Amino acid sequence: MSKRKNNTGKRLLNKFLQVFLTTFAILVLVVGVGTAGFIYFARQSVSAVPDDSSSLTGEVSTDGTAGNDEGSLAERKMTTFAIFGVDRDGYRTDVTMIAFFNHEDASFDIVSVPRDTQVKLPDDLYAKISARRSDVEQIMKINEVPAYVTNKVNETSVQVLESGFGIEIDYYINLNLDAFRFIVDQVGEIEVEVPMDMYYQDPVQNLNINLKKGIQTINGAQAEQLIRYREGYGTGDIGRIEMQHAFMKAFVEQLLTTKNRLNMVNLMSAFMLKVDTDFTEALDYLIFLDKISADNITLHMLPGHAESTERSYYIYDYDASKALFDEILNKAYASETEGEAVETGVDVEPTEIINVKSLAISVQNGTSIIGLAGRYKDILEKDGFNVIEAVNYPDKPVKRSKIVVPNEVVFEAIKGYLNDPEMQIDETMMDKEVQVILILGQDAED
């Protein structure tokens, strides 16, 4: 089996897990609410419950913690979940998503964060990690964060998401792929329309797909086959993703059947054995039970693009990401004033990451020493910088070395390669083909 085929299999597995986790974000909330309902009504049968709703909603803080006087759950607008799907060894997150539950209409907006998304560790977290691991870079892929943490792995990943995207996260959910078949079987067979005969065999992945076209009721093992199949779609991944979304809707509809609602306590007990979460405030969410619907789910991809220099990253688009999170969060805060929508919510402020080593650097020799620029190019490239040229500076001789940079952060990262260089800031450099210029002066000769 070729390496390319194995990599394709891994991508299919990751997308399959991603769709399942999307459904699971809803599942955990719904099951939690259902369990809360059971407990609430059971309590009613043995003791009186106050007429007001204070015992139902409780007092919660802005981070979802009960027992705070800042306001009841009914007065809050949004609950936010971080969802993590870990790989087989548990050290890297194959899937990261942020799910926003809008209290106004019981809708979900779920943002998928690609596993290669470039993030910058908060300074305090980086200081702790680098004290143990001197080889750790402050800028890394989102899926690498758990590998460098010895405890509170989920909380640390939440911290990185909050810092990176400028949002507050109330709860986390963490699970692995092995839970998928179990959970589907616990919920019950799912009725879906299989769009074609599906047949595919891959012994390397232990994958055996054999489904017939038409309306089928499928169990956990068959659901895995449905989600992972892609060979027969004329539109490739587009068709497969559409099928995954259809399954997700059918899954939630099955979860919300009367039989499952009445069996929520047993379902919750089984699910909690398979998932790691701090979502302990389920009782407070009873008030949303009747509003939850499979139709109120909107899926988003974090805006950005793939980029490869010394490493392959998914670079999120700062402006587009800010706009997306602003829109999602402020839907819950929008009010009507004389026919005009007024936003009274929050202003999201993601971290704008500048990975200095990915910037295009020009090294220019301002001395008469032949090959000086080339030597500096080799030094910088060895340390992972992206040097695109080593050329002569046209206005020789240069006495003191100078670095032309878009901001001071970039200068601080590079200045150590020269002897007390001059800094020249040109904010337009980030939009140019060459983003950093090192002009080597006579002080660089040594």
Topology:
Blueprint: H1 3-46, H2 54-57, E1 78-86, E2 93-102, E3 107-113, E4 118-120, H3 123-132, E5 139-141, H4 153-165, E6 171-176, H5 179-187, E7 190-194, E8 198-202, E9 207-211, E10 214-218, H6 220-228, H7 237-255, H8 258-262, H9 264-272, E11 276-277, E12 297-301, E13 304-308, E14 312-316, H10 318-331, E15 335-337, E16 340-342, E17 360-365, H11 372-382, E18 386-392, E19 402-405, H12 408-414, E20 422-425, E21 436-440
Parallel strand pairs: 1-6, 3-12, 17-18, 17-21, 19-20
Antiparallel strand pairs: 1-2, 2-3, 4-5, 6-11, 7-10, 8-9, 13-14, 15-16, 19-21
Helix pairs in contact: 1-7, 1-9, 5-6, 6-7
Give a written overview of the molecule:
The chain is of the alpha/beta class. 35% of the residues lie in helices and 24% in strands. It has a six-stranded mixed beta sheet with strand order 11-6-1-2-3-12, with helices on both faces. Helix 1 (3-46) crosses helix 9 and helix 6 (220-228) packs antiparallel against helix 7 (237-255). The protein is elongated and about 85 Å long. Residues 1-13 and 32-71 have low confidence and may be disordered.
